[in-house]
Every structure is written in C-alpha cells, then in structure tokens.
Amino acid sequence: MPxxxxxxxxxxxxxxxxxxxxxEEAGVAVVGAGVVGLTVALDLARRGLRVVLLDExxxxxxxxxxxxxxxxxxxxYGRLGLGARLLEKGVTWNTGRVFFRDREAYSFNLLxxxxxxxxxxxxxxxxxxxxxxxxxxxxxxxxxxxxxxxVAAVEPRADGALLGVETPEGGYRLxxxxxxxxxxxxxxxxxxxxLPFLGQVFRDRxxxxxxxxxxxxxxxxxxxxxxxxxxxxxxxxHRQPDDLxxxxxxxxxxxxxxxEKRPERVRARVAAMLGPDxxxxxxxxxxxxxxxxxxxRFRHGRVLFLGDAAHQVSPFGARGGNGGVQDADNLGWKLAxxxxxxxxxxxxxxxxxxxxxxxxxxxxxxxxxxxxxxxxNEAARAYRDAVLELAGxxxxxxxxxxxxxxxxxxxxAASPLSTPDAVPWGEGLPLGASAPDAPVQRDGEPDWLLRxxxxxxxxxxxxxxxxxxxxxGIARLVVSAVPAPGALWDHSGLAxxxxxxxxxxxxxxxxxxxxxxxxxxxxxxxxxRAARDRALAIPNRRxxx
Amino acid sequence: xxxxxxxxxxxxxxFYAALMEAHRGLDSEASRRLDARLVILLANHIGDAExxxxxxALAREGLAPERPAADTGDRP
Lengths: 545, 76
Fold this sequence. Notes:
The complex is a heterodimer. Chain A has 13 helices and 28 strands. Chain A is of the alpha+beta class. In chain A, the strands form six sheets. In chain A, strands 1, 2, 8, 9, 10, 11, 19 and 20 form an eight-stranded mixed sheet that branches. A seven-stranded mixed sheet of chain A has the order 6-5-14-15-16-13-17. In chain A, strand 15 and strand 16 form a beta hairpin. The radius of gyration of chain B is 17 Å and the shape is globular. Chain B is an all-alpha fold. Chain B has a domain at 26-60.
C-alpha cells in the first residue's frame, strides 16, 4: 500500500526510576497519548503544570481514524495555538449531501452564517493532529512524554494512584497525585477500577478505507442510502488532504471481517463506486463495529476518565474525537485551579456534572443516527425509505433524514457552576454554552472575539461598552459598538447579537470560554466575584459561618 | 394540544374507502411503505409533539408483547 504519511518514531527515554528503584512521584499523570491525552496534557502544560504522559507505543495513530474536526474543536485548538495549522492543512467543508438510491434526497449547510474564524468542520487525518500535539507538548518543556511505557497495573488510592509501568528496559512504579485515563475504549485504568460500561452494541459492521485518488468530488460530506453501487447498505465519503479520501461502506452483521479486509475485495467495492475511469490506491483498510455506551461517572476520586475511556459513540456525527477534546477542554482549567489552590477539589465533581450529560447527548444522537442508518426490522426500513423518498420531493421530510447529527458544542445547561440570571435574559447565548465567535477590529486590525476570551488562561469579564469593573484576577474585555481605544470594535454588531447583549451588559466567561454568568445593565465587582467563586465551586463566603 | 378522540371525520366511509383504494393492488411491502409515508405526512401536519406522543401511546395499547428486553445490554 502506498504511503502519503510516514509515522514518526519517538525515542524511549530511560526514566530515573528504573535506576533508583524507588516509587517515582508525579503531580499529574496522563495514560494514553492519543488525541485526548495529548490535548489535556498540552492544556495543563500551557497552564504551567508538569505532566507525565505515558503511552505503550512510540508513534501517532495508524490510519486516518478520526478525521472530522468540528468548529468547537478548532476553537479549542485555536486557544492551544494549533488552530491555524489545522485550518491550513485540513479540508474545509460546511455542506452535507444525502443520496437515496440513484438521486439526491437532501443537502444541508452546517454553518449557514458568516462571521466565524473557523468553519463547521475541517477534515484532517488524526495522525497529523497527534504529531502536532506531540510537538506542541514538547515545546512547553513541561510534558514528560514517555513512549514505550505501558501501564500494567493501577491501584487507586485516596492520595492519587499507584501505577506499575513496563518499558523495554524494565518496570518501575509511579505514584501520581492525579491520574487522567485517556487510554481509549479498552482502557486498562477502567478495567483496573472495575468500572462497567453501560449502553448498547449495534449489530452491524462497517468497512473503512482510505483511498488515494485524484477525483472531482467536491469538499463536502456525501452519504448514500442504498446506492446502486452498494445495494441495500449505506456509504459515506469524506475528502481529506493529500488526495486521500475516506470511504465507509456498511457491510451488515453477517459480513466476515477478515474476508472484507482483503485488498482485492475492497478494490472491487471502491471501483464499483468510482466507475472504471478513476485510478486509485488503497492506503488503509479496517473493519469495525461500534458501541454507544459510557461508564457511570467520569470522576473516581483522584482518577478521571476522558474520551473513549469514558464514553463511546458510533462514528456517525463525528462525536467521538470531538467529544473527547471537549472533555479535555472542560477538565484542564479545573484541575489547574485545584492544583494551584485556587479552587477546592469539589470543583472536579463538576467535570462529572457537565461532561456526563454531554456524553449522553452524544450517545443519544449517535444511537439515533445508527437506528436510522441500520433499520432493525421491516417497519424501521419502511419508515426510513419513506422518509428518504419523501425528502427528495418535500421539505417536510428532510429534517427526519438522519445520516449523522454532526457534533455541536455541548451546552452545559444544568451546570452547578453557572449563576442563574437575576432577570430573564431573553434571546442570545444560553448559560453554560461556549461563547460564539464574532469578527471584531482591534486598533484598526481585523481580529476575532474568541481569541481574546480565556487568552490569559483565566476568567474573562466581557463588557459591552464601559461600565462594569472586573475584580482582581479576572481579565476585563471591552467590546464596543464604535471604535474606542483598548476596546474590540464589534463593527458588524454580531458579537452583541450572538450574546443577546446591549450597551452596559456584561458576561462572565470561564477559562474554557463557556458562559458562567451574565448581568443585564452591568455588575458590581462583588457580584462578578461571587459568580466567579461559584464557577470555581468555592463555598459562598457570606453563607459561611 | 390533547389528541382529539371524539369523531371528527365528516365522511368517515369516504375516508375509509379512499384509504382502501390507495392500498389496492399493492403488495404488503408497498402497502407498508404507503402507510409509512402517510404517517410521516400526517405527523408533520399535526406538528405538536405531545399530540403525537399521545397518538403513538394510544395506537400501541393492547399490542402485546411489550418491547422485548433488547439485545442492548453490554456487560463488562
């Protein structure tokens, strides 16, 4: 098979513990240097924390795997300094097109409005993202990346976790005050703690193929139900950089995975789809099944679970990798605040309270998509086909077409960290949602609002016009309807409209850019401080005896 | 909006005949497809989620067995 990408090999560095034989102490250990582990390690390092990152392999992902990076993920990587790189290399797309048999049933635009730095999605092979995250982690000087270091035993303790680590040069023990399990669907940390997954297995198999070709398909997501070239099943096509295309063939439960992976068999399927005139090469092939499930809680004392180690979804909707990156985004600032003594450990309970409902939303959406794509009985197939037939002719049926409800940022609607509105807010961003972007000008230069929220790693008081003062420790960001020195000029009015804010209003945003509180007509420094304390799970000072 | 359960059709025999006529000549698969289309068209016409939930519950009454305890349990 040809290679558009060569996996880097990272060196094994002999840890001192192999020689002194004592238990090594670490503040934070992350198990698993996949997308999620690398992201949370980078986030913590950028907040000044040292992280030991353990991975059993010595390279990034084999095969493109997660390829669809959602707008929110791009914004998070923007905050972590990698957003522009993903945008530049990735294939931008906003349109999804759905076909039924030999005709188009429906198309949708995921980002119908202008005025955002990042598009709805870029497609990019997972190995690029991981490689750049490795480089960024190394550049901080604070991430101790330990390749070829397999965690073989985990013993949770009140003061952290004791790990047994195996390396090519022997084993050693590592005690971590905090352990972040990012070790995927077959998480050893999860098994060691005896935590069961609860959820659903789907009786279907899918063939995934990365195909190198020069093809005229546009950069959009294409999904076929029951196409002539793959009758009775579905097919999904995505474009990636490097003339690489992802094709996902539904095979049905009875397919033989080994047989289906044979190159000549895959070639026949691809050729049937492309026609005889398009030459192509296979780069990577895999057959998979999937589950929609999660563990009960994501925090277990000093051990926290992120990404696939905590929850898994079907691939339809791009909710796996994007959900995991949001886990990292949610946990990083909280753990940093606890380790710096700025917040009680109870703040980490909010990781559960916020990310469990987010995982449930992803599981619900991806399970529903799967039920539509894989009808379980004759009635389900009749309804699905009826929807697809009607959708071609009547708009009314189009919202029912479900080829994947694509990842959206979680709205942390029931978050205990949010301060309820004193007066009804009306239109605009709901509490707990991540801040919308908007084009602004700073000192006459074009800029983006989100670049300035959480930019210093802390809370931001977003003030529409002058007025409210931020208490110490909270950055004050002024957005103005007219050009003003030191303020971001909201020249299009989009920032005000998207927040539902008018002159004098101010909003408190968390370090992860989610909305914690908002104040119609402004706020006293004391009110802002109280909302910030609530968002840090600090008990109410006035209420304390 | 609560589901209307009192008679409302001005010409019940006429409606029934039209429905039977639509199914005439279709095999069972096509008939099932016709009914599915009809449900989707009418559901969209009704629009109200509560009414639709009530109708689904009413239609489901007395149709044993209860939903089987799915092949969904995934034990560790």
